[in-house]
Design brief:
about 250 residues; 2 domains; six-stranded mixed beta sheet; 9 helices; binds adenosine-5'-triphosphate; binds magnesium ion
Length: about 250
């Protein structure tokens, strides 16, 4: 794995109407790393992700992508939002929703559709290409949102609570899907989640956010071998030790 920083956040503070949501955050994400951020509701996780994505201008501090300060959403970075259901267009079919994410790219329509179909195939939804989002379950809609993000072929993927509203079994499947796609596409990924076990299962490193304003209060390196396998990986003593350590960091 390369040790260069894909994203570097230096001394980031974001205030809304004079109230700080996050304060003095320093964070480097290595190229190819899968980083998870955990923390209680309201501690500033989404704000931090939006700052990383160039969607929110920090009040103070700098975000650099591959060594260059960003001033707005970079081309090479894609976000899967917390409210993914609302981010799909109900009047467009699944394949059109995925292809729509490419409309800014200078591509022929056929090329866009072909790429959309191959990404739907990657998330197991090829058969549903002509459905409308409202004809799909929550978990399937989430797969569409993932396919749309993948279609952009960004090297950096930011995911905000991507599996929040799916059932427990689908959630595990989506975690494995994400890991498979992350390793096969060679992406750098940051995932925000409430779920300690999910963070450990997925990540190379877990950062803990706490407080109001939110700060990064602790981190853990996850040395569990890859590929990760749900029951086996979660059953390891190292996994339990990490869960305990992170739980204490969140609660302590
Ligand atoms: N656009 C905004 N305008 C004003 N305040 C905001 C805005 N966005 C976030 N905040 C405030 O910033 C703080 C952090 O919010 P944020 O959405 O980042 O938390 P979070 O950790 O993602 O929470 P959750 O886990 O519930 O998604 C909250 O107090 C919230 O009210
Ligand atoms: Mg949030």
């Amino acid at each position: 794995m390369s040790t260069s920083a894909a994203l570097r956040l230096s001394n980031i503070t974001k205030e809304f109407d004079g109230n700080a949501a996050i304060s003095n955050v320093d964070l480097e994400i290595r190229t190819g790393e899968l980083l998870a951020i955990i923390g209680r509701s309201g501690c500033g996780k989404s704000t931090l992700l939006r700052v990383m994505a160039g969607l929110v201008q920090p009040t103070r501090g700098v975000v650099e992508l591959n060594g260059r300060p960003i001033a707005g959403p970079p081309e090479d970075l894609t976000v899967v939002f917390q409210e993914y259901g609302r981010s799909l267009l109900p009047w467009k079919t699944v394949v059109s929703n995925v292809a729509f994410g490419l409309s800014a790219a200078r591509m022929e329509k056929k090329e866009r559709v072909d790429r959309a179909l191959s990404c739907l195939d990657a998330v197991g939804l090829l058969k549903h290409a002509d459905f409308y989002p409202w004809q799909l379950s929550g978990g399937m809609q989430q797969r569409v949102a993932l396919a749309r993000a993948l279609a952009r072929k960004s090297s950096i993927l930011l995911l905000d609570e991507p599996f929040g509203s799916v059932d427990a079994q689908s959630r595990l499947e989506l975690q494995d899907e994400l890991l498979r796609l992350w390793s096969s596409f060679g992406m750098t990924a940051v995932i925000v989640t409430h779920d300690i076990d999910e963070a450990i299962y997925l990540a190379d490193r877990v950062c803990v956010m706490r407080g109001s304003p939110g700060v990064i209060s602790a981190q853990a390196i996850i040395g569990l071998e890859r590929p990760r396998v749900q029951v086996e990986t979660r059953g390891k003593p190292e996994f339990s030790a990490l869960r305990r350590e992170l739980y204490e960091s969140l609660a302590g």
